[in-house]
Amino acid sequence: MLALFLMSPAPAGGGGGDTTGQLIQTVVMFGAVIAIFYFMMIRPQQKRAKEHQKLLASIKKGDSVVTSSGIHGTVYEVDETTITVTIASNTNVKFDKSSVGTVKA
User: Can you give the pTM of this predicted structure?
Assistant: First the structure.
């Protein structure tokens, strides 16, 4: 669409053409680009963030989790902002809740 706008011929005459039509066309094009950007990039990311927040809120003791750094373990304790994960026998590691990538069933 933008290429068509840029390739459109200049108005005939000595420069006294109607620029109102061009201004409206430019504003419509910018609006379309912004709308496409919103629906293709921003909105899906917001949806993923909400799903991740729900996942973090549903973590409970005994869940198998994988952190964003790739550490697999079982939740030993859940606090408000942190979780303690058992990664081996008698080995507990404390993480921020936000570092949990997935909860395995």
Answer: 0.64
